[in-house]
């Protein structure tokens, strides 16, 4: 199903004001409802390689998953998008890990990941590390994903407050990343989608530089112009210091769309002919 009439998608990626190159990578396919953002890590250009490999591999494999849903529809979870993300992220992790093991200049490279698949009036979200997905719905701005980071663990355990976390020196210590180990567990959840929703995927170069309330306010004020909104978010991060690469993907749900029939319902319809 072509979702270009349903979803408006805008991407931006900027090296920031300090870094010499951009280790973030973004991908969007509005026709399929797939968006992927990765924030690479590693010496030299290894982080750029890890994030680029991740978005490229996931882009091609998720496109194939849309074309061949049957194997995933049979998954125990009952959610083909969740099964597809779980399977293809595992394969991508293996590919990045093997590249790091086989080429010395890429040793230790890895990447965070946040990916969303819009389907059947729902969105399935997968993430690893501290790249985030937010949602603006009916004036309420919400962080949907929960960071896999040392800071988040300290907040959860009550050692520090979210306010103290903003000034912590441990901002970049993630507890989970793609490509670092032979296997990794992506956190995957499914949510209902409503017309008018705006989803923001971002690397920590945005939310480390700009408070959540300012991000949410910008989305509300510029909801009618996603291109300007994305540009403004990047400029805000850079105006506040731009200490890291900053990438954003904005997805607006223009209207509800009917859920495509499953392979089973199509089979029943064929028997009724």
TrEMBL record:
<dbReference type="Pfam" id="PF13672">
    <property type="entry name" value="PP2C_2"/>
</dbReference>
<dbReference type="InterPro" id="IPR036457">
    <property type="entry name" value="PPM-type-like_dom_sf"/>
</dbReference>
<dbReference type="GO" id="GO:0016539">
    <property type="term" value="P:intein-mediated protein splicing"/>
</dbReference>
<dbReference type="InterPro" id="IPR015655">
    <property type="entry name" value="PP2C"/>
</dbReference>
<protein>
    <submittedName>
        <fullName>Protein phosphatase</fullName>
    </submittedName>
</protein>
<dbReference type="InterPro" id="IPR006141">
    <property type="entry name" value="Intein_N"/>
</dbReference>
<dbReference type="GO" id="GO:0004722">
    <property type="term" value="F:protein serine/threonine phosphatase activity"/>
</dbReference>
<dbReference type="InterPro" id="IPR001932">
    <property type="entry name" value="PPM-type_phosphatase-like_dom"/>
</dbReference>
<feature type="domain" description="PPM-type phosphatase">
    <location>
        <begin position="8"/>
        <end position="253"/>
    </location>
</feature>
């Amino acid at each position: 199903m072509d979702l270009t009439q349903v979803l408006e998608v805008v991407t931006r990626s900027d090296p920031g004001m300090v870094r010499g190159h951009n280790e973030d990578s973004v991908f969007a396919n509005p026709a399929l409802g797939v968006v992927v953002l990765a924030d690479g890590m590693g010496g030299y250009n290894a982080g750029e390689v890890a994030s680029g490999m991740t978005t490229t591999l996931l882009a091609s494999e998720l496109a194939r998953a849309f074309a061949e849903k049957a194997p995933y529809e049979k998954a125990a979870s009952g959610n083909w998008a969740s099964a597809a993300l779980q399977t293809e992220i595992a394969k991508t992790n293996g590919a990045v890990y093997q590249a790091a093991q086989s080429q010395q200049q890429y040793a230790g490279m890895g990447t965070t990941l946040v990916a969303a698949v819009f389907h059947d009036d729902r969105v399935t979200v997968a993430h690893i590390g501290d790249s985030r997905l937010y949602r603006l719905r009916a004036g309420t701005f919400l962080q949907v994903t929960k960071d896999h980071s040392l800071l988040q663990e300290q907040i959860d355990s009550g050692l520090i407050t979210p306010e103290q976390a903003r000034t912590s020196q441990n901002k970049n210590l993630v507890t989970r990343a793609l490509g670092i180990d032979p296997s990794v567990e992506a956190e995957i959840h499914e949510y209902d989608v409503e017309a008018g929703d705006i989803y923001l995927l971002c690397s920590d170069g945005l939310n480390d530089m700009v408070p959540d309330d300012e991000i949410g306010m910008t989305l509300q004020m510029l909801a009618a112009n996603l291109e300007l909104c994305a540009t403004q978010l990047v400029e805000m991060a850079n105006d506040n210091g731009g200490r890291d690469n900053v990438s954003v993907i904005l997805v607006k749900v223009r209207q509800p769309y009917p859920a495509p029939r499953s392979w089973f319902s199509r089979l029943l319809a064929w028997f009724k002919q």
